[in-house]
Amino acid sequence: MARRRRRPQGRDVSGILLLDKPMGITSNAALQEVKKLYRARKAGHTGSLDPLATGMLPICLGRATRISAFLLDADKEYLVRVKLGEITTTADAEGEVVETHPTDQVTREALEAVLPRFRGQIEQLPPMYSAVKHKGERLYKLAREGVEVEREPRAITIHELELLEFDNPEFEIRVHCSKGTYVRTLAEDIGRALGVGAHVIGLRRTRVGPYQEEGMVTLESLRQLAAEQGLEALDALLLPLDSGLAQWPEVRLGADSAFYLLQGQPVLVPKAPTEGWVRIYDADGRFLGVGEIDDDGRVAPRRLLAK
Known about the structure:
single chain, 307 residues, alpha+beta, Pseudouridine synthase
């Protein structure tokens, strides 16, 4: 006798929540609490923050999980507090101090002088305490076993790097960077360029793609809202699925084109962009999903959300 398939548990709720992750918990722990508060059937986040870090962690509920990869690839912005003169095993305050150096000779002018070499496209060596895989194993697992392996440098882009405050041996910087940037490594490399070493003692993510810090909500406020006003109040905090793709141009489809696109077929759209990614809507303004302009100029569906 065939077993009955278990019904998915939870509500079919969709949208994006800009969570202000608190310090001291993992991104997955924060995700699971949000999912529980919303009683959501499906949820995912768009790139982990270390337990030490705070700030923006976009949570995708329901159909929004289908576009989480696009937010994972988006630029990020951070406020970073760095301590000079100490190198740790993890490049942050959670690691063991393995080297110390005097910092008396480091001035604000000296720090400002080394920052330009870290702006623009640079190569960065992934740290051992990272989720990068080596022969199927996460580097952080190997690091915890005391194993260090050779890593390949990766090209990243630091769009902006601004010194906000300097109070030797600490300083604060604002970093606007591409995906794949390890801020801990950036801080460590700046310290190395100054000849004294450094590690991160505070990290806050303030932007992911088009999302700004002002739209974030805390776990505490979510708990209170859930207890006092219920699910309807929580749902009111959710952003629409296409809000994270606002930087892309949009195309509108007539009824026939929308029908064929939803069957997975590329369609020709007058006055559409000639290349790149687009947001796709039907004539009534309903968001259908994400597409890409193919070689012959047609809009090819890449991730449909209307189904």
